[in-house]
Design a protein that fits this description.
Blueprint: E1 4-6, H1 11-19, E2 25-26, H2 33-39, H3 45-61, E3 68-78, E4 81-83, H4 89-99, E5 103-114, E6 117-130, H5 135-145, E7 166-170, H6 173-177, H7 181-190
Parallel strand pairs: 1-2, 1-3
Antiparallel strand pairs: 3-4, 3-5, 5-6, 6-7
Helix pairs in contact: 4-5
């Protein structure tokens, strides 16, 4: 079977693949995400997430001829604004206060690259309805979840205390975790990296 490399250091993406019984090696990609985003001026959040997934996979694939490389990325939009990972605990508190009572649109994308060519890419959307968050709850939440959430867009880990931020969620649980896993598994079967 084709060997698979995950171009990510994301614990949740690794956990998804592990739980699904997918054999892979993890090698984080070193790409300038902000520069790529700036080059995509006017692109939709979904298009940016997909382009970043391809760029991450392509970067790792350069050093591994013949390997199938999986790249993935997630973007958050709320109130018409794009949000990146919080730069500090104070910045996370600002993000959470802004999200309070709003809907977060979470765009998760994935791509498979082999020998410089993108073999497959996909993006999906989840809509997370944030409840009204008190300043006291935000402080309590960050006391428990910082610095772990510093690595996440949206300032939450849905598999941890982050689930308390939401009233309801529309969309696939894997998209919320940061990768459209069902679509990825289908593509891996097509590419010969999983048994059909």
């Amino acid at each position: 079977m084709t060997s698979l490399i995950l171009a990510s250091k994301s614990a949740s993406r690794r956990a998804m693949l592990d739980a699904a019984g997918v054999a892979y090696e993890a090698m984080p990609a070193d790409v300038d995400e902000r520069a790529i985003e700036q080059s995509l001026e006017g692109a939709s959040p979904a298009e940016i997430a997909e382009a970043l997934s391809v760029a991450k996979a392509a970067e790792v694939a350069k050093a591994h001829p013949g390997a199938l490389v999986l790249g993935s990325d997630s973007l958050v939009v709320a109130g018409g604004k794009r949000f990146d990972k919080p730069a500090s605990r104070e910045n996370a508190a600002e993000h959470l206060a802004f999200f309070s009572g709003k809907v977060i649109e979470l765009h998760s994308a994935a791509a498979l690259v082999k020998d410089g060519g993108c073999e497959w890419s996909h993006q999906s959307l989840a809509r997370l309805h944030v409840r009204e968050l008190s300043a006291g709850f935000i402080d309590h939440y960050l006391e428990a979840e910082w610095p772990e959430i510093s690595f996440t867009v949206g300032c939450f880990r849905i598999e941890a205390m982050g689930v308390q931020l939401f009233e309801s969620i529309e969309g696939d649980q894997f998209t919320v975790l940061g990768m459209p896993l069902l679509a990825v598994l289908g593509a891996l079967r097509e590419q010969g990296a999983l048994l059909a």
